[in-house]
Amino acid sequence: MALSAAGLSVLVLAVTSPAAALLSLLAGVVLAGGLTRGSRRILDGAGGIYVLALLVGGLGDAGSEVLLLTAIASILAWDIAENALSVGDHLGRETDTTRLEVVHAAATLVVLTVGAGMVFAIGTAASGGQPITAVVLLLVGVIALVAGLRR
Amino acid sequence: MTQGFDTERWHGVEGLVLVTAAAGVFMRAPPLLLLAGLGIVLLGYIRIATLDEVSVQVERELSDSTPDADDEVTVTFRVTNEGTRTLFDLRLVDGVPPALAVSDGTARLGTALRPGATASTTYTVTAIRGEHTWDETVVIARDPSGALERRETRHTETTMRCEPELAATADLPLRGLTSQYTGRVETDVPGSGLEFASIREYRHGDPIRRIDWNRRARTGELATVQFREERAATVVLVVDTRSEAHVAPTTDAETAVERCVDAASIAFPALLDSGDRVGVAAFGPEECWLPPSGGGDHRARARRLFATHSAFSPAPSDAAFFPSIAMRRLRRRLSSDAQVIFCSPLTDDYAVSVARRLEAYGHAVTVVSPDPTSTESLGARLARIERDLRLRDLRRAGVRVVDWGDEPLGVSLERAEAGWSR
């Protein structure tokens, strides 16, 4: 369960813009609270604050790399925390579930890292000043595509 | 392909991605667009999740499948992935029999398994009397992102049987109601025996050994000495197994039913050894009846009965219980010369009425009552007082009562005996 603490600290370090760092610190505290209380709702609240922190960071002067790293850390922290809660529900506190949780965290981390790398590469390659409508349409199209993927 | 169900853990991510993208577009912040891009990758990862049928095999191994009571039994719990895909997130909860308590380790396992790989865990249970069958194992599998979940059960037949030896550690004194066979219960019937009873006039056919020769020498009259005849009794041990009797002073203490069965299994061999015919009955939702008899076979039968009969299981039964029918059935089964030893914690008035009714029908009743009350709270103290009143009620009605506290049964018997009249 304490695994997520690592995610939190990484995140706090990764944020450079002060307002966003403050917000994500708050999110980290809320997350820890949610974990000790075992409440999924508090965890979701922490997730919301993370998103807010990312938005603030993005609108401020945080660079793309920092923002993506922060996003990876935030999502990872929330994911590990939520997974820890569900494992705790199913298996209790005494059971040794390190392997399970590490595998889960590793899978998420790999996907996020690869994804962030891809996005960053596309971002730097395509930062040639396309019209904003094109970007919007592209985004909407991709979201529709992903949403339409079969479950 | 069948799918697992949605765990709903990623719900709302789509919305957050759209919000981020919109913010990026309208505020002209390229980093936010990248962020939205990352969100889309995440969404894709969640969306492509699939979860096939989980094919795992569960095995269980006991260090001893026929342990003695209170032995520690180590259970090795093994799971093997027999499918062709890696199971990233596998959680298993073993179905430990309800009556057994896990004393060390946990009966749960969480792991990730490659095809063909095996994971195992061990835990320890404390054996208690009875036949314990393991329930199904619950298998929960999730895809790597945790978006889909699948629950299944696996059944592996495992049974542990614990039959304690019947040991007569305390002698239970019986009351005067006896059968016509010779035994050790002293009756007021004059005849042959050990303890002097009376002298009466000689009648033709009296054995020469019992003629009072001193009197003959003194007075010249023939007289016959009579002794108190010692006879065997027929005893039926009735154990209160109603759900009301499944009570214990603390959560991890032995329940009153357990102690009642203990008392019965102490009394059984003691009575059998002294030549009495002993039977066993359960007064509860599960029906159990062992007719009074004697001999080695009977002892073995009783041993198995106490250990494995579902009526005496340490966990309460779910079956419906109709007290008046059970009472009628019990009465029909008791022969008229049968004494009853009723083992009950006396936690409600019905138990008292059972004892009083049996006494009224002419079966000399002795109640052995393990004390399940405590003094921890006000309610518990009230329950203790109520039980004390019930005991007093029974004693007043002429029923012998052994109030069995924490001490060994023999000690309680000794104390109770001091207060009994012959």
UniProtKB/TrEMBL annotation, chain A:
InterPro entries: DUF7519. The chain crosses the membrane at residues 102-126, 132-149. Keywords: Membrane, Transmembrane, Transmembrane helix. This is Uncharacterized protein. It comes from Haloferax elongans ATCC BAA-1513.
TrEMBL record, chain B:
Keywords: Membrane, Transmembrane, Transmembrane helix. Gene3D superfamilies: Immunoglobulins (2.60.40.10). It holds the Pfam family DUF58. The chain crosses the membrane at residues 32-50. It comes from the Archaea. Residues 199-366 form the DUF58 domain. The keyword Metal-binding does not apply. The keyword Manganese does not apply. This is DUF58 domain-containing protein. It comes from Haloferax elongans ATCC BAA-1513.
